[in-house]
Amino acid sequence: MNFARHGALTKLGFATLTCNSALAIYRSRDDPRAVAFVAGAYGAIALLFHLRRFERGEEEEGRTTRAAVWALTTLLTAMFASRVAPLMPPAVAALVWVMAAGTAGAGFWALVIHR
């Protein structure tokens, strides 16, 4: 990832994310599922940082980049919903999943179909 083009706030945010993820992995070292969750979320967010060229309007690979952004954000949405829903009462858990599906569907429409 080329950080030379990114501003100080982006660098600080990514450094904070990296430190927080490393600490979460260290604290969860005895729970492989938690480590996999944190590593997967960190990887998806790191890839989204890499795909910032989409935000800047570089459209050589526009459709492919938009599809990748949608896939990564849908992955993150599903990952977090899968961690939150079991902690909720059944009706609220169903609402969490409906909202996650709605978010993924709206993102697909906005990033892939509508463009």
Q: What do these coordinates show?
A:
By secondary structure, this protein is mostly helical. It folds into two domains: 58 residues; 56 residues. 75% of the residues lie in helices and 0% in strands. The protein is built from four helices and no strands. The longest helix is centred in the last third of the chain and has 24 residues.
Number of domains: 2
Low-confidence stretches: none
Average pLDDT reading: 87
| SS-derived structural category | mainly alpha
Largest sheet: none
Q: What is the tally of beta strands?
A: 0
Portion in beta strands: under 5%
Shape, principal axes of CA atoms:
flat
Mind telling me the C-alpha Rg?
16 Å
Helical proportion, percent range: over 70%
Written as H for each helix and E for each strand, in order along the chain, the element string is HHHH
Number of helices: 4
Distance between the termini: 27 Å
What tags apply to this protein structure?
single chain, mainly alpha, 2 domains, 0% strand, flat, DUF6490, membrane
Topology:
Layout: H1 8-27, H2 32-50, H3 62-84, H4 90-113
InterPro entries: DUF6490
Keywords: Membrane, Transmembrane, Transmembrane helix
Transmembrane segments: 34-51, 67-85, 91-113
Summarize this structure briefly.
The protein is built from four helices and no strands. The chain is mainly α.
